[in-house]
Amino acid sequence: MRYEGMVYRPPSEANSLLIQATIGCPHNRCTFCSMYKGTRFRIRSVEDIKEDLRTARKYYGEYIDTIFFPDGNTIYMKTGQLVEIFNYAHEVFSHLERITVYGSARFVNLKSLEDLKLLKSAGLKRIHMGMESGDDLVLERIKKGVSSEAIIEAGRKLKEAGIETSEYYLVGAGGKELSRQHALESARVLSAFSPDFIRLRTLIPQPGTPLYEEYKSGAFQLLSPHEALQEIRLLVENLNCEGSRVLSDHVSNYCNVTGKLPDDKDLMLKAIDQCLQIDESKFRPPSIGRL
After folding, report:
1. Which of 90, 122, 194, 286 is least surrounded, with the fewest CB atoms within 10 Å of its CB?
2. What does DSSP assign to residue 250?
3. Is 258 helix (H, G, I), strand (E, B) or coil?
4. CA 227 to CA 207: how far, in whole Å?
């Protein structure tokens, strides 16, 4: 397999075979993200991707059950190209059960419902979507390039196509100023389509990003550990989802908030309240760590 640059994948894809289908991110303007800065986006050829799949088969054998195709927003590829590499992956690995990619709402919405159903039939099971926020002002400030209504549209379309949605909520993305509306509007958006997974990530400013410069200048104020937990509590309290799993599967988070909605909501709120009883000095500093 050939890899270019740093290859990123969600923690839940730790055991997946990684085959780069794209290099970089077609948006690459989010103020908090350092992942693809300095990388020019391009799509790898289908033949190169197929060759890497064959190489992986020789190296790992036939027992590969999950494949994640990086880089950022691989869903941007033409539907026909994706169908071809997904079908080929199933030919190479007969035990393959799950194919996943990154895909933000902006690029998911470039696909028709018929396109998404074709991808589902070809084996695409899940899309990891960096929603970050459901509040339009926060989305504008972090330059996400999408609106709250577009996020809902993409979520509903994927649900109709039968593709799992794994949405990421960026705790603290609104700073102290917009924390409350960030949580409440995000709860509204997520409740509009009940994603399969709601994954929590706590904002840690990364050097080399515009948001880091805002933080250093004082223009952006980070949440304290307790404030971050209170924001999560407000989010969870206002989620009206059916069957969504809330997960804190990332080292950036202060508390392990995990459960299935609506049944486990009270248990999650109780867990947060218990963490709020811990002195803030026991938590990591808000600005130290990596996303």
Report:
1. 90
2. S
3. coil
4. 23
Q: Are strands 259-260 and 197-202 parallel, antiparallel or unpaired?
A: unpaired
Residues 202-247 pLDDT 10s: 999 999 999 999 999 999 999 999 999 999 999 999 999 999 999 9
Q: Give the Cα separation of 174 and 214 in Å (integer).
A: 12
Asked whether the CA dihedral 72, 64, 90, 165 is positive or negative, the reply is negative
Q: What interhelical angle do 225-237 and 265-275 show, nearest 10?
A: 170
Query: Which residues face 164 on adjacent strands?
Result: 126
Q: Compute CA distances 137 → 66, 145, 180, 182, whole Å.
A: 37, 11, 12, 9
Tokens 């949580």 sit at which residue? 183
3-state helix, strand, coil split of the chain in percent (to 5) is: 40, 15, 45
Q: What are the tokens at 154?
A: 């993409």
Phi, psi of 151 (to 5 degrees): -65, -45
The three state secondary structure string of 174-188 is CCCCCHHHHHHHHHH
| Per-residue pLDDT at 290 | 59
With beta carbons less than 8 A apart as the criterion, state whether 162 and 120 touch: yes
> How is residue 194 written in tokens?
């009940």
Which amino acid, residue 205?
A: P
Cα 170 from Cα 220, distance rounded (Å): 15
- State how beta strands 259-260 and 245-247 pair: antiparallel
| Residue where the block lists tokens 């389509």 | 193
Q: What is the pLDDT of residue 38?
A: 82
Distance CA 252, CA 70 (A): 22
